[in-house]
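Subgroup meeting minutes
Present: P.N., E.W., G.H.
Scribe: E.W.

1. P.N. recapped why we're keeping a running log of single-chain structure predictions: easier to compare across weeks, and new members can see raw inputs and outputs side by side.
2. G.H. added today's entry (258 aa).
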Amino acid sequence: MIEPRAALRIAAFVTLGLAPSIAALVVAPGRGAALAASGSVVMAATFSAWAWRLASEGSRLTGLAVSLRNDVTALEEKVASQNRELRDVRTSDEVTGLLNRSAFLRRLDEAIARDARLGKPLAFLLIDIEDFRALNAEQGRIGGDKVLKQVAAAIQGATRGTDCVGRLGGDEFGVALSECEDPRPAVNRLFVALGAGDGATVRVSVGAVTIENPAGGVDMSELFRLAEGALASVRGTGGSLCARRTLRGETDSAAATA
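Output recorded in log:
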């Protein structure tokens, strides 16, 4: 559809090109044909110049639109990247890169709700580094952070991508094992990973709680009480040990590393 302004320009160009021809036909009909041809040439040339200018202007505007669209896309990507960085800062532990305490607790709630919908059990692990205070005093903060990163990497290697791992504070870590009835395989993988690392072997204590029926409701205070009680029963023994409980508080067993 031609814009009104463009239509007026076309009309003006046509009139300008044909004006001599029309006048010649009125004043001197014998010369009208020659002048009409001349007027047509003028009109065609004028119209061509206008069309070229219009096309050039259209190309320039199209280029500006493309450039603007690219700038907007780049800005949107930058904003999205900054939002992801801010989200990571809010949810990540600055030393290990794991979920921080508040983010882990949210993910734990989500894991419980998910397995409740599926009718599946899940397991919760509370992990503590043996003699970390003495190690931190001996090696300093940098050495302590190195151990924290080593344990974090071992936990991630021993768990699945669907599980969630977080640092709860100090040398304490939390793990939610989705759709898991028996946490012992994951715990044993953790013990093996820590024993196979470079340098001195890092030992951990683990309090494991199996939530057999998350659909029945989970009291988080009771869950942590059971996990902390299991952890306390093996902490300070000098080796990597795990004590297990169910959500009802029944002691199943204590397993040492191979």
